[in-house]
Amino acid sequence: LLDALIDQAALAIERVTLAEDVDRAKLAAETERLRSALLTSISHDLRTPLASILGSATSLSGYGPMLDEAARRELAMTIQEEAERLNRFIANLLDMTRLESGAIRPRTGAVDPAEVVGSALERVRRILAGHRVEIDLAAGLPMVEIDAVLFEQVLFNLLDNAGKYAPDGSPITVRAWREDGRVRIEVLDEGDGIPPEDVDRIFDKFYRVHAQDRQRAGTGLGLAICRGFVEAMGGTIAAGNRRDRSGAVFSLTLPEAAGMPGLDPEPDPGL
Ligand code: ADP
Q1: Which residues does 43 contact at the CB level (< 8 Å), separation at least 6?
Q2: How many whole angstroms from 68 Cα to the centroid of ligand 1?
């Protein structure tokens, strides 16, 4: 899997640089540099949670009987959280390869946006436990024509990021309304926001604003996956900063489903 990702990245560089007729030695050096940077980054992302799991498991098995109930629970929670983090990381890598190999074909249908927002929130509830989540969905939102499974993953990634990049305890808002024949959904946080020069690049594969900041585990893949999924469904996604205060805004638009029940009622068969 890792090799496939690296090869894809190398191929992409090759295509661009060949078009510009760059010399081969430079190209090989650049490919090699990318390959090793990628390996370092991915190994780090795998090893950080693994080290926590190993540490906590070793304490539990070695000193478990000597620890009180609260300490044992704490260690067990660490193991669970870090294993979940590993799981998300691997899911991200898989999603990315599926996207790039064309294996993702959205199965769209009429979906109630409030329902997908609800199920995505349910999935991130534990991750966002330290935050206040505010939901503000306009009344009478129409159905949207999307793949509910892919879209839930998109919301999950955005909410997970809001939790990661905004301070603990700060509010995270999800709001949605109808606009120009589409449904707009926004995820807002109160973190530092995104430097203006990076608002487009953060959707690139492996791009992270603070590449050196390894405190927050991440792959730089989450937003690339979001964009791939959303565009495959005929939607749009953009990043920006809040005007009212510091914080990021991720804004999605989704196509409305044709023949929405609320606005275009079926003829009453009894008439
Ligand atoms: P990851 O979170 O794994 O690094 P993503 O593709 O999800 O990868 O995000 C890419 C980069 O965009 C992040 O590294 C971070 O620098 C920036 N970013 C994403 N979401 C936010 C946010 N809510 N606030 C500030 N920066 C963000």
Answers
A1: none
A2: 38
